[in-house]
Each structure stands twice: as structure tokens, then as C-alpha cells.
Amino acid sequence: MLRGTFSIRAIQYLTLLIGVFVVFFPIYSVFVGAFKTKVEFYQSGLGLPNDFFNFENFERVFKVGKLDLGFKNIAIIMVVALTGNVIIGTMVAYALGRFDFKLRTPIMGLYLIAQVIPLVTTQVATFSVIKWLGVYNTLKAPMLLYMGADVLQIVIYLQFIHNIPRDLDESAMIEGASLFRIYRSIIFPLLGPATATLIILKSISIYNDFYVPFLYMPSQKLKVVSTAIFSFVGPNAAQMNVISAGILVIFIPTVIIFLLLQRFIFAGVTNGAVK
Predict the structure, then answer these.
(1) Residue 157 lies in domain
(2) Is residue 11 part of a domain?
(3) SS3 for 165?
(4) Rounded to a whole number, what is the distance in angstroms from the first to the last CA of the chain?
(5) pTM of the predicted model over 0.85
(6) Of 30, 226, 249, 268, whose CA is between 20 and 30 Å from 177?
(7) Residue 18 φ/ψ, nearest 5 degrees
(8) Of 152, 136, 30, which is closest to residue 92 (Cα–Cα)?
């Protein structure tokens, strides 16, 4: 009995150690690689760099890769896209959660269908629409693509809306408030925890995305953080030491933001499920 318990405990700890290794090994390799020269990177393998004060790679990331421009562009995209995303998401959830109409179930079904369709299969049509709108190779293209609300966002908002008493709506109607006034003054403020959660999750998703900026903004003047790093990938080889430095710089803001705001993520999801 004791031997069986020991075996189970050993397997549990072994699994945890493997999980820790899988998570932290890429971080370690990127960290040590960021301070190595190109020759040192390929010769020393995973060993420590000779000089932790070698910041040449970081300088190249900003001077050659224009990472500062990437931070500026992604910040503009995120502000506009998230603003539209929150407005659209809350309005859709308000309509689906507060009103009974024939198209309510089909609309929710369309959101579910759109979620399971592979993104690649729709890119020809999406690309054609972006070109037709005249926003290709501009910051407006990713703004429009990121602005749409997805089914996860709608579900989280609906969880909160279903727990907002309808008596508040009825009281406001008696006072002469319109439906839009009820949304703006009552529903939207009470969706604050869910909005904070989704803003954080969406921000990280947009910040890390490479596919949309690379496809819809090929201009060198429209780099974001992900495509700025791609500048160091050549047809025959990649400057992995410089890429490691860029990844480390990009990684720092996401870690800080997550550590500071993680309580909003967990609170927003669990509150919507428990209330």
C-alpha cells in the first residue's frame, strides 16, 4: 500500500517537473541568447553568455528592426480595436440577453459556427473585403479585423447580464429612459468586471498576433512588435541572438501587465459564472 502511494506521488512530482521544464526552458533559452553574439549563440548552445552586459542585440532590435515603431503602431491598433470591440460586444450581449426575438437563437448559432471555422479557410474572402474597403496596408485593416466580438466574449457578457435584475430596466423605463439610455447608464457600467477581463485577454491576443499584421500590413512603416522581430529572419538563416533580444523586450510588458491585472481576469470569469 505504501509502495503504491509512493509510486503515485513520484509520478505526480515527475509530471510537475516535466511541466516546469517545458514552461521555463524556452524562457531560459531566450534570456541567455539575448546577450550572446551570433558566433557565441551557435557555439555555446544553451550555456551562459560570456557577458551579460552585451546590449548590442537590443540596440539592433530598435535601430534595425524599428521595435519602437512597432510598439507605437500596436498601441494605436489596440486602443481603437478594443474600444470598438467592447462597444460591439456589450451591445450584442445586451440585445441577446434582454430581448426575445425570432433571430436570437440563429444569431448565437452564427457566432458559434464562426468560431469553429478554421481561420485560413476564410482568408481569401476576408482579404477581398479588406481590399474592397480600401484599407489594405493601413492600420485600419487590423483594427477592423480585431474589432469583431467572438463567442467567448458574448458568453461572458451574457453571464453578467442574466444576473442584472430586470427591475432596473423597468424602473428606468418608468422614468422615461430609452433602451439606449438603459444600456448606457445601467447595463454597461455593471459589465465593468467582464469588460476588464476581456480587455486584458484581447490585448494579449492582439499584442502577440503575427498573422494579421504580416498579411494585411506589409509596409515597413507599419510594423508591429511581432513583424519587427520577423525583420531578422532571412531566406537562409535567422539572427536568433537578435530575435531572442527582441522577444525578451516584447515579453516584459506582457508579464508586468498580467501580474498586475491577473486578479481582474480570474474575478471577471468566476464572478460571471457564480453570480
Answers:
(1) 66-231
(2) no
(3) coil
(4) 43
(5) no
(6) 268
(7) -65, -40
(8) 152
